[in-house]
């Protein structure tokens, strides 16, 4: 509705029925994308929300809608001619429809969540030519500098000396050397370790991917991007934890020294792995990183990875499947996910399937034949190396375009951030 000068004075946004809202996330974000520029305030926000969403916590609904409003402004403009080089990659654009935070809402906390999401999306959206292992290391260094964290990096042949052989093997054929990035923050509280798969580009190796599949592989470091976004949330909130972030950063490339199908490799744990598909490389680099994580005696390990395509087939692009041996952790994570409009789905560690990853000539098989239960066997592979309590989460296209920019695909960092404070380990 226009005011006397013709500018927008009042806008009505349809909120739909309960059934319609159950099929969407961030309902008001659609309005934010279509409104004229200006600052808007929700009239009678508490009363209206209580009436439209009976039975739900009003504050939680408003927080979620405010976050969605912010995220709807995300744009990745690094490679647009109209964008200045100084502006970087993506941004939560200040142009467009702004929202005055409703009473009782912690605007700073919501802005911090949005900034962390922006970081994750920017990292994934950046092409591999500008986001290889070295550039991913630089991104971690920038985050560490912002929050006064420390960082160490083991690079190239130093990985062999440090007994991280699988990380070295997967990444040795690439122009940029493979590396293990290790960030520490916080000196008191429970020990929390985040492990993120950082395969910056995945050709499939000698088991080369088809072109249609390879075109998406800049996102194969989505696990690393998500743990960095989560780490930013944790540090910005000042959670009382001893945080460690481990990222095996590699490119799975093709060259004369690439690892081969049929090779038998030895992991940091001392277990041997028969390579039946060089395109199942993510679990290899995670194996060494998870074993290193265990040696630090953490109270909780959370691993995130684009692992595997089978997981996406099982639950689709919006749900992040996760694995845990702990029913209480699983329930807490699901509750946190629901409150953050960040859906997850628990998958089973089905012990009888362990036989599928036990080949004839080695301890483990990195790619069992048959194609059945691919997500479960990948999780069992990772879980079979460390013994620490762990939550394994698959992530997909956290930064990919979609009709509503507010909702990323299977990027569960917010769900985990909400899970952590009441978590019995933390």
List keywords for this structure.
about 35% helix; single chain; 16 strands; alpha/beta; elongated; about 425 residues; Aminopeptidase; 3-stranded mixed beta sheet; 9-stranded mixed beta sheet
Could you explain how this protein is built, in words?
The strands form 4 sheets. Strands 5, 6, 7, 8, 9, 12, 13, 14 and 16 form a 9-stranded mixed sheet that branches. A 3-stranded mixed sheet has the order 10-11-15, with no helix packed on it. The chain is elongated, with a radius of gyration of 22 Å. It has 2 domains: 18-105, no CATH class; 128-419, Aminopeptidase. Residues 396-408 have low confidence and may be disordered. It has helices spanning 18-21, 29-34, 45-52, 58-71, 107-125, 133-146, 158-161, 165-171, 211-214, 222-237, 282-295, 309-315, 327-339, 374-383, 413-419; strands at residues 38-40, 74-76, 90-92, 97-99, 150-155, 179-185, 191-196, 198-202, 242-252, 264-266, 272-274, 300-305, 320-324, 344-346, 364-365, 390-394. A hairpin with a 5-residue loop joins β10 and β11. The longest helix is centred in the N-terminal third of the chain and has 19 residues, at 107-125. With 426 residues, the chain is α/β, with parallel strands linked by helices. It has 15 helices and 16 strands.
